[in-house]
Amino acid sequence: MTNPVTQNRRHFEDLVVDEVINLGHTTVTKEMIFTFAREFDPLPFHIDEEAARKSLLGGLASSGWQTGALSLRMLVDRFLSTIASAGGLGFQDLKWKNPVMAGDTIGGTVTIAGLRRSGSHPQWGIVTLDFDIRNQADKPVMTMQLSNLVECRGVAA
Amino acid sequence: MTRWFEDIVIDEAFPLGDHTFSEDEIIRFGTLYDPQYFHVDPELAKHSHFGGLVASGWHTVSVGHRKMVDALDAEADRLKAQGDEPGVSGPSPGVNSMEFKAPVRSGDTVTYELIVTGKRPSNSLPGWGLLFNRLTAVNQRGELVYRAEIVGFSKLRDYSMPIKLRVLLALTRVPVIGPLLRRST
């Protein structure tokens, strides 16, 4: 059965290893940091500027989970919404390399590192995606490898 | 926040409590950070293999992180109440692995648990230790929702800075020499 939402999108067979997705960029404001941290990461160095100055990070910085969420958003806009994505499987080797400070602009690239058919589900393939997220000074802020399911063409679910 | 590095017991399980996901919050998080159709549109989501709306994995993980922060704060309060000084937890350097095993639907209740599986002093940050944390999330049917291996920094209580480092630190505060030293390190 064809999925009407994804039928006109690129499927697993249309993807190629080494394809580079340019993520564009996004600026992380103080207000964005406070809003995310109050809900998900209310540690002093994410919600209190004075405490942040005295912390290891040396100033107000975004939650690492927020850096990841904003990077994911850029990937959805530029890539996952344009392919027959069937959801994430997880990720590995996530490294927060430098803090994202209030006012920083982050962006970068995602590269298709691998493509393989699912052994147990013939209707799916698995794409692995290498993230390279940097700040406005081109310093790396986050890397990780995400695995995502993608629908294959013409295989009944 | 929390205990000192030295007082953290390997393989002790910390229950972090649970969270029930509403349709509204699933859509709100999805709209901001993961606007794929099965995270934001209950009607279109019926066409996906999930058969309906599911939470972004990043959402269930962010809630798990919040539950951990709350539990660390509660542990600090418990220590203060018995007259002890709580330790200091720092930022996280990364996540070794994160596996999403079962989707979270609106109305699902997810229960989180933290186990510290290992620890060692940090090589790069003097005065701090590394904790290897395993976080698991299970739904109301007992199915594993996700399992994560997360690394965290925790401050050492019994740390005195070696004399060499103290001298270096003092020198970085001296005009002219300081900026040169900071540039070279």
Notes on the protein architecture:
- The complex is a heterodimer of chains A (157) and B (185).
- Chain A is α+β, with helices and mostly antiparallel strands and 157 residues long.
- Chain A has one domain (12-151): Thiol Ester Dehydrase, Chain A (Roll), CATH 3.10.129.
- Chain A is 23% helix and 36% strand.
- Chain A has four helices and five strands.
- Chain A has helices spanning 30-40, 44-47, 49-54, 64-78, and strands spanning 20-27, 85-96, 105-117, 124-134, 140-151.
- In chain A, strand 4 (124-134) and strand 5 form a beta hairpin.
- The mean pLDDT of chain A is 95.
- With 185 residues, chain B is an alpha+beta fold.
- In chain B, 31% of the residues lie in helices and 28% in strands.
- Chain B contains five helices and five strands, in the order E-H-H-H-E-E-E-E-H-H.
- Chain B has helices at 23-33, 37-40, 57-81, 163-171, 177-184; strands spanning 13-20, 94-100, 109-121, 128-138, 144-155.
- In chain B, a hairpin with a 6-residue loop joins strand 3 and strand 4.
- In chain B, 34% of the residues are buried.
- The chains are: A alpha+beta (157), B alpha+beta (185).
- Strand 2 of chain A pairs antiparallel with strand 2 (94-100) of chain B, so a sheet runs across the interface.
